[in-house]
Amino acid sequence: MSDNILIITGGTGGHVLPAVNFFKYLSQQKKKVFILTDYRGNKYIHNINQNKIFKIYSSHYSGSLFFKLIATIKLLLGFIQSIIIFVKLKPKNIVSFGSYASSAPLLCFLLFNYFFKTSLYLHEQNSVVGKVNRIFLKFSRKIFMNFDKEYLNIKNYQDKISIVGLPQKIKVNNSINIKNKNFSAVNFLIFAGSQGSLDLLDIFINILKNLNRISISKQIFFTIQAPLSKHLEIEDILKKNNYKFQIKNFYNDFDNILKQTDIALCRSGAGTINDLITYKIPAVICPLPSAKDNHQYENAKILTNIKCAIVVDKSKINDDEMILFIDKSLNDKNFKYNLKQNFDAIEIKNTNELMWNYIKNAK
């Protein structure tokens, strides 16, 4: 048996990016670590030696009968590819970050484990444990959880739960680095993660139409992440109202943008919620309606329960409630003080170190 560590991930950026962060941490510790991902997930992986990455076919089952047939073929191919990878690496430890893309490799793990002693660890980013993680939880040694809450859908496995947070690419202090703040303007960030943003941008347009109801002493500067198809429409509205802004479909310096942000309009993927907590950003949140198990709404409750965010629904927007929250977040000193206190109460953990310490010391 080798000392190799295999990290399994794939699908969306919400699953892949934390896995990449943990991979890079282990690499810095000089560990023999590899990533197994699907072709879709691979587009989120950058600045890693390609010899350390194994790609397989994968698919979900949401679609027509023909789509399901193609999905079955892809999953079978992915299973065969996984067997070859497992035989080559003979990993001592496997850390899986969920999503449909991990299903075939984890089935392979069950087969592989009859011949070699391999330990399985799971990480769950969201407030609701995903289906794949639920299925394989009984075969794992531990499930590392992002949020400190009660997980009712795995109540029979409480002894396997360890609250560690989300693997981060940098260790950020539990305070904002304000030296990069642009104090001459109110910085308003609009971003939606990796799963699209069209309805979120409709809400943004609605906010713009109501911003004249707020008295702000500083100029508002908008930073917008949007698909190219929406750029002209948004630019037109912002220019007509003399707002300063930057708009792109992707930002390379997103950490610096977060450091400067005063308020955000966003989705509620696990990574987004962790960013809001890390940088103490109040937010108007529009959960992705199609998110599996409604997990984005459950993620949002982490912040709405402590009054650091509000949730809006495109189909029934309450303009008064939304604008009031923005107004208080920007202008009300007592409200802003309470926001900071509530954010400060959330512990930011050194997730990479916690996970690795448990794995290396497990008996």
Describe the 3D structure.
The chain is 41% helix and 17% strand. The chain is an alpha/beta fold and 363 residues long. The chain has two domains: 5-168 and 349-361, 3-Layer(aba) Sandwich (Rossmann fold), CATH 3.40.50; 178-344, Rossmann fold (3-Layer(aba) Sandwich). Helix 2 (39-42) links the parallel strand 2 and strand 3. The longest helix is centred in the N-terminal third of the chain and has 25 residues, at 65-89. Mean pLDDT is 89; it is low at 172-180.
In short:
With 363 residues, this protein is of the alpha/beta class. It is 41% helix and 17% strand. The chain is built from 13 helices and 13 strands.
Strand and helix map with partners:
Blueprint: E1 5-8, H1 13-28, E2 33-38, H2 39-42, E3 53-56, H3 65-89, E4 93-96, H4 103-112, E5 119-124, H5 131-136, E6 142-145, E7 161-163, E8 185-191, H6 198-210, E9 219-225, H7 228-240, E10 244-248, H8 254-260, E11 263-266, H9 270-278, E12 283-285, H10 295-304, E13 309-311, H11 319-331, H12 333-344, H13 351-361
Parallel strand pairs: 1-2, 1-4, 2-3, 4-5, 5-6, 6-7, 8-9, 8-11, 9-10, 11-12, 12-13
Helix pairs in contact: 3-4, 6-7, 11-12
Strand order of the largest sheet: 3-2-1-4-5-6-7
Q: Strand content of the residues, in percent? A: 15-25%
How many structural domains in the coordinates?
A: 2
- The CATH superfamily of the largest domain turns out to be Glycogen Phosphorylase B
